[in-house]
Amino acid sequence: MLQPCGLLAAFMIFMVRVLAADGDGAESSLSSPPSTCENEIMMEAAEIDVLKAFLHPEVVMFEFGSGGSTVAFAQLVKKLYVAEHAPSWAAEVQQRCEALGIHNVQLFSAVPNRSALDAIGATDCGIFRPQLVFDDADSLRVTYGPNLDPKWREASPLAREAVFGDYLKLIQRANESRFDVVLIDGRVRGESAIAALPYVDERSVVIIHDWFLEEWGYEFLPDGTQDFSKAVKVAPRNRLKSYRQVLDFYDVVCRVSPETHPLRCSRAGLVVLRKKPQANPNEA
Question: Would you say the pTM of this structure is higher than 0.90?
């Protein structure tokens, strides 16, 4: 696997900033028009540009969560392994790859632990059943799920890990000692970054999508029903304790957010991370 020297890594970071920059409001001249597959990625222009800056034919990549990004990014890398918590969706993505002649993707799936979720007492929306659509007319296909339930949102990282323990261990099944890029865009994203620690080094990047996302939706009440009287907005995901723990083990390389790139990132954003030199996965 590629292990770029410090100078090359620094150049890559410079290119990330150029590619993601808003400039005077025009699209970057270095950006290519989106492909058909890119149009299926639930990411915005600046986010896609940053990701693509780290992808090339020698990259071995792992992705937590599958979808349009799997199909699009697999075509840019040597090998892509994917973890998915919904086996039926994993099969659909695999079929989509095969139909397009993409053969460098290996998907693994593991269902969540129902007993562990019942112990928390939180909704199964977005865990055992699909997330809910907030507005059918919204072009961004905005949905909401378990983070609108305080029981899930405030659950300890250990409790959340118990629900998705088998999913988080799927990275072990790739039988790779190291990944160049880990993209986290599925369930339990903070815990996924911790699970990736043994498989990344100071040259790898870990990218968490939706780092700045403020979710809109209808809050789940203690009895499991929802309060439809008004929509509520949850604090940005990076303020949740399951996300904050990530910064104990990783340094921020760069970020894309609605604040830094308002013309090309309206909602979710992402953060690019590198493992701290002294980070010990056994302490997580």
Answer: no
